[in-house]
Specification:
heterodimer, A: alpha/beta, TIM Barrel, eight-stranded mixed sheet, seven-stranded parallel sheet, globular, B: alpha/beta, ten-stranded mixed sheet, 15 strands
Chain lengths: 401, 493
């Protein structure tokens, strides 16, 4: 269920450092190899007054989280009275905005996905973008990411890197990749990119530090330039992305192809599947996705809207086409009740836990726990009219073929 | 076209209105449709009117076929260097086999055989004959040659004669390879009547994960008539061997290889039912081969290719019928052709390659130490013509590769350069087979169009494309499974 990525608390004491902080219980904090000034000690379950805050301050710790405010005058900065205590847990990394008391979770231990959001800038403007780009200098995000990396648990299996378009950072992306190699050598990177900048081989050289431990997830929305370029609102981008994918693959990088189903892409989805099979059979994974009704997708509803059941049928046919041919395929953001059962094994619980919900229509469904469910932003008008609980008696959804 | 692939040409202007890319065409069925293919094997069927507009370069984006043709690189729209780069990658993928040395190594431990099949293609010798067995010394030299190949995955196939009559040599070769190259990927296979399979031999084959092809010509009466033995029990003995092989080596590793003789020609359903009823997941229906004894006995056992086509069409339909009953089975040759048609990859099959597989993809080691560019080249030599003898097992691979036999193959090995092939729309799925055309047409560069090879394969391609483009959806899906099942991880396991 959805657990927000930030909350608010009351900040007291002299908190100057804008660094990300690792939240650790006292015992772990005292034995950690991290610099103490990057650690916030979680005292929320310790008895009030049971810990000598002055001593912790003297040791150099950055701050403490407490259940209640611990009286003024403590030298150690205190974050107290969190609006939601469950948002922050031991092992997480938080970023604190002193002015507003906002505590954001930059890394959540044990979450099904963790990502670095490295820029809001983008060189495309996809009609269904859930995270519309902003053309502002946000290079501070690179600095934050570099400070965050040492605080992430080393046993993290996969770290996402997303934006915006990460390749626009240029050398900043290089530094992030070098940082992950140093601090998270065993972590696989999953980087969302439109691939266009990789049409220039110098950009491929710039990400050499990620080779072998990175999957570059590149969206291809059609089998023709005309349709793809229309979706991403950038002429030439289809050809740039294909050249980019080839340049990456020739340099030994791993590729995932991503597709989002909506009214503009569904009509050519089978052509898309065959195109990927013929031209990109080296892709290690193809992700076929339902729409996330956020950002530009909401604004462009008129051109994008298609009954989710129709999108699911199309996704199922394309997934079957590719899976029959031995390609690794996943279906994202598509509820099981809209998919034929032979495609259920490919359907993933793809929506990050902090924005995933089930709908009232799901009441009584027997496969709820295996289902992707819905984006928090998908109200009834986006869910369509075909969502219903799956029971043993539920017939297969009508099949396209 | 090749030249354009090799260089980067950044200043070629964009093509805004679709222009045809290099392609080949063939009329399908009654001629209402035209099949258009490119060098990478991508294809599209157009009706006559669309084809005329396409060929004239006047197809416009509002035509329903336009986007499909652009996506399949039959029409060019956009930056030419991008389309050419993608096409180049696809051609490289399709012909990836040229980047490595011989992967298939056929070894003949003995020429002796206890049967005397009417159509025998391998010039077998009687079971009591001496000096038709491979010596251990020759076998060890052959192993040297096998391991000289840089192919990523090797297949060592034992043929005969009846190879199990030379089991000691099989054992020596397998164990030597395992010891010398424990880390190389080597698949062992054997084509046999299985009459001489024992518990011990089966255990050995299982230990080394052998793929077994059992020679079975269909139902008992046809099989025994084709393969006379004193007790008239050839079929029963083979099936006993099959049962033992399945038990010890695994049913999935035992396939049937069936030679279709004139006697079997009128019983396609009976032959298929006998093979599938006997539980084979894969059957290979072969026409008579024009080699060795088979050539000489052609008058008694032979037939023309039209008759084989009629047989094959019915047999294929019968296997699909079994599929629809829920029985997993394929015709192995159709599966190979379908892999070429439906996937970006080559099947690996050495007889359907351009450049030819002979010598480049396969070497055959005869019992006497002669090395041939293919098994057919070996049979031709047994019939008196050593044109494809590359040398002996004592010659290092580079010496064998520089032989006159290889020069001969090179002159007739590239279908893109051969009369009868170069304009054929089926070329991307087919092969040049210079050894076969030397044997049957008299020259490695012989015009392919009149050859039995060409008639057989164009017939198969018309049959398969007819089903893929216009057949019932269910048959399309089944044939797609045949063509792709070796690519699916669960099927490979």
């Amino acid at each position: 269920m959805s657990l927000p990525l930030h909350t608010f608390g009351t900040l007291s004491g002299d908190f100057a450092a804008p660094h990300p902080l690792k939240v650790l219980p006292l015992a772990d904090a005292l034995t950690t190899e991290l610099p103490f000034d990057r650690v916030a000690i979680d005292l929320r379950s310790d008895p009030v007054g049971g810990v000598d805050l002055g001593a912790l301050h003297a040791l150099g710790f950055a701050a403490a989280l407490t259940a209640d405010s611990r009286g003024p005058g403590a030298a150690l900065p205190i974050f107290a009275g969190l609006r939601r205590n469950d948002v922050v847990a031991a092992g997480d990394v938080i970023g604190v905005t002193a002015r507003t008391g906002r505590i954001g979770v930059l890394y959540r231990r044990g979450a099904d996905s963790n990502s670095l959001f490295v820029t809001e800038r983008c060189n495309s403007l996809c009609l269904m973008c859930s995270q519309p780009p902003r053309n502002e200098d946000d290079s501070w995000r690179v600095a934050e990411a570099l400070e965050l990396l040492p605080l992430i648990d080393r046993n993290l299996p996969v770290l996402g890197i997303t934006g915006g378009e990460p390749t626009l950072l240029g050398e900043g992306l290089t530094r992030i990749l070098v940082g992950t190699a140093e601090h998270l050598p065993d972590t696989h990177l999953h980087i969302l990119t439109n691939g266009r900048r990789f049409a220039d081989r110098r950009m491929v050289t710039a990400v050499t530090a990620g080779r072998g431990r990175t999957t570059w997830a590149v969206p291809i929305y059609a089998d023709t330039a005309a349709r793809h370029d229309q979706v991403v609102q950038a002429p030439g981008s289809f050809e740039e992305a294909l050249e980019g994918i080839h340049n990456l693959a020739e340099a030994g990088h791993r590729i995932e192809v991503r597709f989002v189903a909506h009214a503009l892409t569904v009509p050519r989805i089978m052509g898309f599947a065959e195109f990927v099979w013929r031209n990109l059979p080296f892709a290690e994974h193809v992700a076929l996705m339902g729409l996330e009704p956020m950002g530009l997708a909401r604004r462009n509803r008129d051109v994008l809207w298609i009954e989710p059941a129709e999108a699911a049928r199309a996704i199922a046919d394309a997934a079957r086409h590719l899976a029959t041919r031995g390609m690794a395929v996943s279906i994202y953001n598509t509820p099981l009740c809209l998919l034929p059962r032979d495609m259920w094994p490919l359907a993933r619980r793809s929506i990050s836990d902090w924005k995933q919900v089930h709908a009232p229509e799901c009441e009584g469904c027997s496969v709820r726990d295996a289902c992707a469910g819905f984006f928090l932003s998908a109200d009834a008008s986006w869910r369509g009219t075909d969502i219903r609980p799956v029971t043993n008696e539920t017939p297969e959804p009508a099949h396209a073929r | 076209m090749e030249a354009a692939f090799g260089r980067t040409a950044p200043n070629i202007p964009r093509v805004e209105k679709g222009a045809p890319l290099p392609h080949r065409v063939v009329a399908l069925g009654d001629g209402a449709q035209v099949l258009v293919t490119n060098d990478a094997g991508e294809f599209m069927a157009l009706d006559r009117a669309d084809f005329a507009t396409f060929a004239a370069g006047r197809l416009t984006p509002d035509s329903p076929a336009y986007d499909d043709l652009v996506a399949r690189h039959l029409l060019l729209a956009g930056r030419p260097e991008v389309a050419l780069r993608l096409l180049a990658t696809k051609v490289r993928t399709k012909k990836a086999f040229v980047q490595q040395g011989p992967a298939l190594h056929i070894l003949v431990p003995t020429l002796r055989c206890h049967q005397s099949c009417l159509y025998c293609q391998v010039s077998r010798r009687p079971i009591g004959a001496d000096s038709f067995d491979m010596s251990p010394e020759t076998a060890l030299h052959a192993v040297e040659r096998i391991l000289e190949s840089d192919a990523a995955a090797l297949t060592v196939e034992f043929q005969g004669g009846e190879p199990l009559l030379g089991f000691d040599i099989i054992k020596l070769v397998v164990e030597t390879i395992r010891r010398r190259a424990p880390d190389r990927r080597v698949t062992f296979s054997i084509t046999s009547t299985l009459h001489h399979l024992t518990d011990d031999i089966a255990a050995f084959l299982a230990e080394h994960s052998f793929q077994v092809s059992a020679s079975i010509d269909g139902p008992e009466d046809i099989h025994n008539a084709n393969r006379p033995l004193p007790g008239a029990d050839a079929h029963r003995r083979t099936m006993e061997g099959v049962a033992l092989a399945r038990r010890v080596i695994g049913a999935a590793n035992v396939a049937a290889i069936t030679t279709v003789t004139r006697r079997g020609l009128h019983h396609p359903e009976g032959i298929v039912d006998a093979l599938i009823g006997a539980g084979f997941p894969s059957v290979f229906l072969r026409p008579l081969s024009p080699y060795g004894f088979a050539l000489r006995s052609a008058r008694r056992t032979g037939y023309d290719m039209d008759a084989f086509q009629a047989f094959y069409r019915r047999a294929l339909d019968r296997i699909l019928w079994w599929n629809r009953q829920g029985v997993e089975a394929e015709e192995a040759y159709a599966a190979i052709l379908l892999t070429h048609i439906l996937t970006p990859f080559h099947s690996g099959y050495v007889d359907l390659r351009s450049p030819a597989g002979a010598g480049l993809g396969v070497l055959a080691y005869d019992y006497d130490g002669g090395v041939y560019a293919s098994d057919e080249g070996r049979m031709l030599a047994a019939a008196g013509d050593p044109a494809f003898r590359m040398g002996t097992v004592r010659d290092p691979l580079p010496v064998l590769m520089a032989s006159d036999a290889m020069r001969l193959i090179a002159t007739g090995g590239v279908a893109e350069d051969l009369p009868g092939c170069r304009d054929c729309a089926f070329l991307p799925y087919c092969g040049s087979d210079p050894v076969h055309h030397y044997a049957t047409q008299g020259h490695v560069r012989a015009d392919r169009q009149p050859s039995d090879f060409c008639r057989r394969h164009t017939g198969l391609f018309h049959l398969l494309f007819g089903l893929l483009l216009d057949g019932p959806l269910e048959k399309q899906a089944l044939l797609t499974r045949w063509g792709t099942q070796r690519l699916r991880p669960e099927a490979a396991a």
